[in-house]
Amino acid sequence: MQSWRFPPSNGSVDDALAIHADATSIINTLNTAASDVESTGEFSEDDDTAILSAIETSVSTVLGSLLDIIDKKPAFEALPICGFSMLFLQDLKNLQNASVGFGNALINTAPGTLVANFTELTNNISAAFEPAITVYSS
Fold this sequence. Notes:
138 residues, Monooxygenase, Cell_wall_mannoprotein_1, Hydrophobic surface binding protein, mainly alpha, elongated
């Protein structure tokens, strides 16, 4: 998500809508990826290790974006059109669900040696959404 491009004050409705569009795109990508993983079935251990590594590498970006969107809630609430906080709350919940769905697809198709790794990663990513969801719920 591009929340880091949204300024701490004086942001525009167009910028906020772009963040929502990015979130929707990521949700769709995760849902498609989960479906693809499920239809493909079990990958090789090398492939699963590469997938796990790629996801682990991207986790810091996800965490940074989640912290950033928490910090910018006042700027979103200051926009001339109300309702962005509720829209972003729904986006956050949908992103969390799509992330867990993708993680579960990987868990269900992973070789036994990597199930615990994918499970831990999925749980950690899901938990990372909780602070942002809590902030946008209030």
